[in-house]
Fold each of these.
Amino acid sequence: MRKKKKMLAVFTSFALTAAGTASPFLAEEQNSPPQNAEAEAAVAGTGTTVNREGAVGISSNSVTYADGQEKLQDNIGETENGGVSVEGIQLQSDDYSFTGITSEDSDTAISGAEIELNVSDTEDDFTSAGTAVYTDSGKVSISDSDITVNGAGRYTIAAEGNADLVVNNSIIHAGGDNGADGNTSSVSEPASNAGLLVSGTSRAAFTAGESHTWFYHSLCLADGWAALSTDSATGSGLELTAYDTDAVALNGGYGLYADTNCRDYLYASNLVSAEVGAIISNNGSVTIGSAFDAVEAVTQDGNGILSEMEAEPLDEDIPSTIAAGRNAVMIHSPDMMGEGNKDYTAQLFISNTDMITEETIRTDSLEYVSEINNEVYMVHGSCDYTQKYGEATGAYENYKIKLRESKY
């Protein structure tokens, strides 16, 4: 079993330990936004849809290449179980619609990938946004890889349909660079969701449909908007599991979002955001605990969480942490889709977890050291809610912040 130290970060506030340690500084866990909140899925990228034509297209364990990408066949092989291996692939593009790897009805293993997708021209069409790795069925595993996607309204990696996506010992980054003009389109920075009061332009990891995404010993970074996003669930819902993983929203947005019929599990993991650590909507649920809490944990289907992600258990009972500038956890259940009254109950299950709210994260800079790669990141929130959302909303947010500070 592997050892891990506790999260190294500079926080000056008091912490709430959900295992029972008293704290004089409580996170505002039920801070509903204005009731005209829009559905996040409808706002993200103003209707973004993924370009499913990848440079490498894998279907039923057969491989095709986009025009001019035949050279990538040197990186393609076969796994022991007859699937497709993608080893040491390097991809770079300045085309907003460029997609790296797509996989359907296949067993695809990606290892040692270095992918950087940028955008150089102003783009107004969000119906073909490129992503680095996309799957809607079968299983895709990503290991020992460094993947960055820049540009508004894009996902770095995405799982939809009934796909399984496993990320191990990797860095997944949604950058905020929108090209030479400083724009991708009308959704350029500082694009925001006025209903959720979060800032940013893109999502690092997007999980939808009835898919399941696992993160093990990985770092998921978003310059803004979303590090881990679970949204648009269908059928029986979807699941995301993170173990020994950091999800960080550097300049605003959230670390994790659990929307309707989304079940998220985090163990020995850290959510850090300049705005909101985690958001739970409608009947979404978040379970968060320590390393040892995961050993006996099972999914709703009764499968062992660690065995499913083939994770090596930590040999210390490391807690989880949620730290944010405005709210550690925000729970809200407005009728975003106009469905009429729904008997929704959002659920938050916490054990062995530190919950922190700290104005310094929201207004200044906080030095955060990720133990995944020992890099130093500056979490910086400079959101002026009055300027972004108007006098009424700005006054509401400032009142809550001052009220909270006056209590403690």
Amino acid sequence: MKVMESKLANVYHSLLRVGVVVVASLLLFDSGILFPVTEQLSQNAQYYVANVIGVGAAVEPTELNTLTAEISARQRDLDAREAALNEREINVDLNSLTDLESTSLSTYILSVLLFIILVLIVLNYALDSARERYVRQLERQINKEKATT
């Protein structure tokens, strides 16, 4: 039974270590600390995934649907104007703060996840060592009782 628990604990510790390495690598990649190109690549991948995800459906045309379609067309026109305005702001470099915020948000989330994993690993090792000391103490007491009887 102890051998099985020991093997499971070893596998668990290995998975935790691999998780920390993966999250730390992802954090380095996303933050662009080692190579600034990786930060831009990560940001572009996030934008691409956000744009690709969508759902489509067909509905019979009614008066309400046509009004909704007109409103949607106007909204798309406004979005196109906003995109053009954002493009001009980027050219003037007024929008650099927004890019910094979105990049730092993903870096912040990954940093928090890495910190949580590290805290869990430290807590796991602390609880394992406390349990091991308790088991040794119980074994000593049992051995003393056997020796006295």
Amino acid sequence: MKYLIVRLILIFVFVIPYQSFAESDWDNIDKKLFIGLTSTYIIDCLQTKYIFDHSKEYQESNLIIRSGVKQHGKIFIPCYFATAIGGSFLIANELSPLLRKFTLSLLLFSSIYTINNNFMIGIGFAF
């Protein structure tokens, strides 16, 4: 049942934003920034799962994820990142085109920085 809920959340998060592109003022740069951000969130999700699979070697520094996993188990990880993707879309969709580009670029840079730091200390991916 837990996995069904996660699948439904992931389908909702990935289908709604991409269908909304057709009806919005997002240009190709906005769309590519959001797709890049979504990709980095997915990579970060896989790295986060790796951290919890190798908890003797690594410790998650995000307190929200750490406490969520303690309360709900590893099922919390994809739910957290699905919420981050959906929330990023909802916020960006309400911004002006210029501010949207700035915000998505900032989030993308931050996410790439996090992924790179994880990679540099030896964190891999877990599926």
